[in-house]
Amino acid sequence: MTKARVVVVDDSPFSVGMISNILIEKGYEVVGSANSLSGALETIRRVSPDIVTMDMTMPGADGIECTMAIHEEAPHIKVIIISSMMDDEIVRKAKKAKVSGYLQKPVDADELALLIERIQASEELFVELDGVYYSVFKEALNETCCKFFQASPNFRQELKINDEKVSRGVSAVLGIIGRYGGRMLLDLSEDTARRLAFHILRQEDLDHEQVVDAIAEIANIVAGNACSLLNRANPIYGFRVAPPTVVYGESIRISKLGLSTVSSVIAETAFGDLYMNVGFSRSEEHE
Fold first, then answer.
1. CA distances from 13 to 16, 33, 35, 81, 162 (A)
2. Radius of gyration of the chain from Cα atoms?
3. Is the N-terminal amide bond of 235 cis, ω within 30° of 0?
4. What is the pLDDT of residue 285?
5. Nearest to 221 by CA among 147, 112, 129, 121
6. How does pLDDT run across 215-229, given as a tens digit for each residue?
7. The whole model's pTM is what?
8. Architecture of the domain made up of 126-280
9. pLDDT tens-digit series, residues 14-35
10. Residues of CATH 3.40.50.2300 domain(s) within the chain?
């Protein structure tokens, strides 16, 4: 694991010096410092650090506002709040601003080093996930189609894009929880949904609720099998699938989420097209 490059942001020169010395002694590279929001933004543009340590009290903006501004500029940069104040309200606001950690002054050198190591390990784990999740979900969709419909789908329009979706008619949306939060969407037309449900259930005159239940269960199986495969590859993920939500009706818009990586594909079957969209966020997600 390479040592992180760090920018120290604090309105106190004493604190900048103290934190910088700790980081250097622990083997990290301090690539810059700042004592204001504008100075922090200018510095990160210039040196592109991995991590920023951030005081809560800054001229013209607090540490949470500075963190949000940094993430607007460079979402990949991890921010650690280091402040003399640390209470439940600050922690709540820090989590909402996607702060990667928070320590109270006077900062303990070992605690700071351990937190940075955990942040770096988490980022490397996410890079690993980003490299494999799409092929795993595609494999799970293929296997599900083979078992239910006795044929592999033809995959096309494989894209990495995160935008708003317009439903084809029936959309099953599943949240994924674990080390990282995610979402899977399975979308198809109402005609395709009805054909799939009839093929599986072999029952005439299926009502709307039966069709919706069938699509929800297909989506649940795809996501569950994919998450199981990912967990077997690396148990640290700890992924679990939340119960699906099914929306239906043409032209219903499904808003995009703040996901860090998104992939989509169309699976062409004898019953019609299935559109799958899946992605994950770098922010850690736990129950």
1. 5, 10, 8, 16, 42
2. 23
3. no
4. 46
5. 147
6. 999 999 999 999 999
7. 0.74
8. 3-Layer(aba) Sandwich (3.40)
9. 999 999 999 999 999 999 999 9
10. 5-107
